[in-house]
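Researcher: I'd like a candidate sequence for this fold, 325 residues long. If you have to choose between options at a position, lean toward the conservative one.
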């Protein structure tokens, strides 16, 4: 009887394992830009962190907000790193998307050949390379300078380009002397011109205004902006969401505490990024995975500013509670 009981128990265990295996997804698709919000996703893939919920985990990089929107509308990804305004815009247009967290609170900065320029107002009358017209970082720049009493269209000559890398190339090729970039593009530009580590004699480029700091100053709040985070596309199993959130938080913690290894890992998956530049960038970004529910107060303030001045940027209204997972 004991042998029969052991066989029965073993059989039940095998059935349980098979059932768990059957519940696993064939493929889980993660997506995001080359910027910092996506980098923990690469660590999750490298370490097989989601092997318990999916047989295969794939990363698809989007290069601009239009590609992001296309991936979302076609349901080509399960979880995606997104600018928070784009997520709100899609939700308000009826797309099945929910914001899971905000992980990027500071990533935007001016880079210039003129070390005397310290604030956005100092760039009045200048040519500035600007990626993503009417999206981040353009909308953050506009809101800050308007609050400073300047007209973003009349007081600055904004040269719009398709991506931060395009803006960086314009800067390096001396087609412009100033650019608004998101990390790690800032650190990439400094590395490519040997300006970082800072040359003792005549470095080519300098870090200038940190937009999050100026945002805090003009709106009299803490110097941070809920700029990007992770969103869920479509309906996902509750356990899949739970496991994704857990592993993303762990990988973000690893990323911040292992800058050298993180740089090497990111360059392995995104060869256009330089490992040393990614390592440099980690010191200059505000990264902290806060659940969408916990970040709601900051998001509502941010969305309120955008909705008052440029309703199209968030889809015409502040998203309702259904947007926050």
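Model: Candidate sequence:
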């Amino acid at each position: 009887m004991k042998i029969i009981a052991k066989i029965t128990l073993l059989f039940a265990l095998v059935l349980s394992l098979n059932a768990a295996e059957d519940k696993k997804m064939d493929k889980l698709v993660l997506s995001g830009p080359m910027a910092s919000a996506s980098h923990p996703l690469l660590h999750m893939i490298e370490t097989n962190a989601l092997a318990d919920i999916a047989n295969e985990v794939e990363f698809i990089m989007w290069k601009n907000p239009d590609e992001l929107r296309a991936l979302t509308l076609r349901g080509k990804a399960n979880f995606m790193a997104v600018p928070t305004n784009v997520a709100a815009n899609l939700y308000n247009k009826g797309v099945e998307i929910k914001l899971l967290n905000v992980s990027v609170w500071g990533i935007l900065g001016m880079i210039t050949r003129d070390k005397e320029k310290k604030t956005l107002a100092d760039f009045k009358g200048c040519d500035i390379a600007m990626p993503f017209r009417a999206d981040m970082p353009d909308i953050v720049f506009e809101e800050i300078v308007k609050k400073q009493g300047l007209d973003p269209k009349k007081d600055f000559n904004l040269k719009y380009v398709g991506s931060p890398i395009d803006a960086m190339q314009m800067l390096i090729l001396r087609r412009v002397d100033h650019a608004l970039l998101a990390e790690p593009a800032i650190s990439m530009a400094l590395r490519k011109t040997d300006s970082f580590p800072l040359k003792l004699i005549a470095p080519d480029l300098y870090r200038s205004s940190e937009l999050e700091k100026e945002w805090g100053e003009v709106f009299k709040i803490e110097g941070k902006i809920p700029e990007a985070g992770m969103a869920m596309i479509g309906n996902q199993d509750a356990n899949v969401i739970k496991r994704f959130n857990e592993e993303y938080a762990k990988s973000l913690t690893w990323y911040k505490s292992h800058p050298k290894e993180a740089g090497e890992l990111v360059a392995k998956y995104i060869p256009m990024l330089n490992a040393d530049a990614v390592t440099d960038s980690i010191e200059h970004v505000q990264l902290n995975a806060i659940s969408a529910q916990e970040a709601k107060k900051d998001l509502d303030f941010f969305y309120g500013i955008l909705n008052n001045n440029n309703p199209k940027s968030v889809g015409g209204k502040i998203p309702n509670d259904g947007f926050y997972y």
